[in-house]
Amino acid sequence: MSKGYILILGARSDIAQALARKYAAGGYNLYLAARRAEELEGFAADLRIRCRIRVKSVELDILNFPSHRLFYDGLPETPVGIICAVGYLGDQLKAQSEMAEAVKIIETNYTGIVSLMNIIADDMEARGRGFIVGISSVAGDRGRKSNYIYGSAKAAFTAYLSGLRNRLHRVNVQVLTVKPGFVKTKMTQGMDLPGRLTAFPSEVAEHVYRAQQCGKDVFYVKWLWRWIMLVIRCIPERRFKRMDL
Amino acid sequence: MHLSGWGNYQRVTPERVFRFEQVATLKGIVVGQDDLISYGNGRSYGDSALGRNIITVKPHNYFLDFDEARGILHVQSGVMLSEIVELFVPRGWFLSVTPGTQLITVGGAIASDVHGKNHHLEGCFSQSVEMFNLMLPDGEVVICSKKCNPELFKATCGGMGLTGVILDAQIRMRKINSRYLSQTTIQSENLRDTLHIIEAHNDHPYSVAWLDCLAEGEKLGRGLVMLGEFCDDGELDFKTRRKLNMPFYLPSFILSKLTAKIFNELYYRQARKRVAQHKVDLDTFFYPLDSVNGWNKIYGKDGFVQYQFVLPKETSHIGLHEIVEMISVSGKGSFLAVLKLHGPENDNYLSFPLEGYSLALDFKMENGIFDLFDRLDEIVLRHGGRFYLAKDVRVTKEVFEKGYPKIDQFRALRERYGMKGKFRSLQSDRVRI
After folding, report:
1. Residue B183 in contact with residue B145, Cβ under 8 Å?
2. What is the pTM (predicted TM-score) of this model?
3. Under an 8 A CB cutoff, do A42 and B66 touch?
């Protein structure tokens, strides 16, 4: 018996694909949403053979706000769970001087998601069931000069999820905020990441799946990050501003 | 980034590491770069997959199709055998040929033309390969099978990644009706007895023997012969297996002649009767070492070398006797010594098995070990044997090519297709192929 459909937003990302495999193995059907959805066909076929589930790739442009209503209503079956893995790291230096880049970072990581998530949240609230998993980032816990435009958009997303959780709690809709630290993906390719603090996408998926299934609220991938971020948040601003981060 | 083979003996820092995800991007890499070698899950023991520029194949890991009527599975080359086993055993399908670890990629299985406990009946992995797509030095993709481009097929199966990059392959699966095997373990008194038992039971689907390489005198060459066949009880459900971790390198003095002797004695005696029967899970039967993550670390930081050779059947008895005696006297043998009687050789240029006995032994890296290998090489060659490239990290060109009469055909093909400067590994440089 199928457990219903999971809608994965930003299905091209490595974390999303690892999550897709995990949920497929758990017996869920999948909608894979991303731009150029036809390129996901190979991945979809792989999941069908591996897990004998239904997989459909659907076109989604997170920056095209007016299309979101049509996108969600167009899904053949209402999903039981949403995983939002949309993300765009962008170029911090470029974004400081070129507003177009800053807007792209903010709209991809925040505004676009809000536009779509508002629609989904209404539906879930009305139905009184479902879950939402948002992949945010530790970068949103405190702004640093190396990526604060991305970080601030993620901070906004974290706050949005927190509010959404507060709103949907009474109708039994779970909202899980996931804050990965470093993850070895296409997005971080070429960066020199510390081994102990860096997770593989499959590891993230494993943990997120478990956290979601047992009803957690906020979850750091690689448990150490929870404590690292706690320390980082506790550093007085007077000291923090002098640090080279 | 450091890379090493499973033996941890040789470590290299490649100049560049390329991820193989899309065929289109791979084409750019293959056309634009020289000195490339594919790297799967890094389970070949020596330097087969080490070189200047590495292509990591594991990201290219989609299942493409499964034809249930014919049992043909089509996968990309980075798919691991473990993924296939995990997904298909519950559906009643198993690999036609599997080596002693499932932690290798399909591409690696073809490139090493691996074999398993059923070689005497089912041959090498390539025998279960219907076709594969191969990217040649100019970026062109060709279909290879026994009928289509048969030369490239014979060169690539066992060709250690030196003919191009394997993109995807269709492999033939076999039907099973249980995830359990009925295993018979027979204790043998000495080498003669071991070989006798193996030969008397060679109609069993799966057969392999463990040798106690440290036993001396009249016990020389004693061991356990293990036979198996799949049960027929319909139990196919997936079982998660508890895995142990080897979290650190064991200090190398712990594995000594004494500890190995104690281990061997206990292991030999585990079969309390001369003939014992058990029902065992396929993981236990086929992949005993996969249950310990990073088991190679028990040999310490300096690593280990696996020495594996095969002797023709005519000379096996006398040759094995000389070799086992030399190892026993040296006192350096470890507890992992695997003896297997192979079936007939295939047509591939560089596939390892030939009809006769192969013996695989792990040796901790230590002083004097290479001298012992040199002396063993001499015996192996004198008896017309050969060495397994997937395990090798040290044989010379001269020693290597004596065992492989088709080596010149392989070299000529590499020359003709412009593969020589394009695909090369430390190993191919060493044995000049």
Report:
1. no
2. 0.89
3. no
